[in-house]
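This part of the workshop introduces the protein records we will be handling. An example says more than a description, so a record of this kind follows.
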Amino acid sequence: MRTHKPVYTGLAAAATAYLIWGLSPIYWKSLATVPAFEILMHRMIWSFVFLFPLAFYTGRRAAFKSALKSPQVMGILAITTLLVGFNWFLFIWAINSNHILQTSLGYYITPLVSVLLGMVFLNERLRRLQAAALTLAAVAVGMMTIRYGHVPWVSLALAFSFSFYGLIRKVAPVGALVGLTIETLILSIPAVGYLGYLAVLGEGSFLRAGVGTDLLLAGAALVTALPLLLFTIGARLLHLSTIGFLQYLAPSCTFLLAILVYNEPLTRPQLVAFILIWTALILYSVDSVIHYRKSR
């Protein structure tokens, strides 16, 4: 039993992280009366307040200071800050504008977009199953575009912004916790100014919309940082292929929330598109397992 304990710990940590991400629409829906941009500003500030002491008291003080002193690292993190900020804003806006299904689709296709970016920017060669998966995803997006007369831009914007974020963070010699702490620091500076401006105008929600709203805005730090920390624990204890399968928990939870809880309509073309995406992800997952076993 001792041999398997780290694996069980990793599974519990990673699965919990993905469940928090997948069920987070419930949290953001509870803040529907607050503008999405204002929520984002609070999310950045409170996340930094939470992450900063955490980074210092977990032995990452030297890494934090080193990153701040490196123009190259700070330049990279400035770009990733814009990407993650845009991704968070769009996700919150989409949730509270009743586009939850589109967010689910976006995070379903994110792994496939990452493969595409690896091919374009890192000269990675596509394997046959990867190519088939990308083709199916393209057909699904094209079908939805033709059926509804417009590109599912929310899904694509979420997928591409997060995939570019992951791609660029790969070249930054900084860990996940330190990197996210600095990213929230960078955006916290203008966020404080913006929220201060709202306070002067008497338009901000914080300290005006009730204690419940105040606690939810401050609690955005936990929704942001807690799943990241759990994911980090899981990633260290599990094989990459296992993490690859678990990542579909989040968009699956979001999909079920959209249909069963928030009653978003699922049309036949949408269902066909999701089936194509799910098939593509099966091919992608099978390819990942095969490639992982060969590499071992």
Summary: The CA atoms of residues 42 and 217 lie 6 Å apart. The chain is about 80% helix and 0% strand. The mean pLDDT is 89.
